[in-house]
Amino acid sequence: MRLLFRYFLEEKAAGFSLFGGGGVAADSKEDQRARIARDKAAEEKRQSSEDKRKAVMASAEEKKKKAEDAARSAQELRKKLEMEQLAKAEAARKAADAKVRQATVQRTPTISLFNINAAPAERLPPPPKKEALKVAPRNVPKLVRWKQNRDGSISGFISGSRAFSEGEYITTSPIISGSAEAGEVVQTGSGSKYYLV
Asked: Containing domain of residue 67, as a range?
């Protein structure tokens, strides 16, 4: 249809009319055939380039789909591995809890409420207390009038320190070893040691 319309327009411009009337003489049949062949070749070329464009777009779409599928499967694999790790961690935690529960059950003594026909219970002596140091170890500063804070740190007045003035009020970092009792040497998370008076 497009070819016929184009042909009609070209003829109209050349002076040809379907309704009669004079004008320039019609092109020869050879010229018409050549024009039709050129138009047909141009149409085929356009159709061929359109087909190539569609093929390239289809190929690009297919590559995009493959990439999305690969990314989705990789994400599913990562999620599966994470779930397996969580399951292993949960199983290990449950096993540890079971061991702790079993150990506590084994160590828990039974108490007779009515004490019928029972021998008097033997009393174990309390564990021996560590004897507190009377004097601070060498090169360990002393904390006087100290108190332990909620975060595990200790606040008090320091003496015998090279880093602080004598009698200065300080707060240590949290204690990691030693017990917060008078006569004990404690060590903080930063590695500092203090003798508690």
From this structure: 27-109
Residue pair 194/185 in contact (Cβ under 8 Å)? The answer is yes
Distances in whole angstroms, Cα of residue 60 to Cα of each of 49, 52, 63, 67, 71: 16, 12, 5, 11, 16
pLDDT digits 0-9 by tens, 60-79: 999 999 999 999 999 999 99
Asked, for residue 116, whether it belongs to a domain, the answer is no
- 137 within some domain: no
The token duo for 9 is 């327009």
Alpha helices in the chain (DSSP H): 2-14, 29-107
Q: How far is CA 18 from CA 15, 21, 57, 145, 155, in A?
A: 10, 8, 44, 121, 112
In the numeric block, the tokens 């606040």 are attached to: 155
Strand partners, 177: 187
Alpha carbon separation from 183 to 32, 109, 120, 143 (Å, rounded): 119, 34, 38, 10
Q: What is the pTM of this model?
A: 0.35
First to last CA, the chain: 109
pLDDT surpasses 70 at 120: no
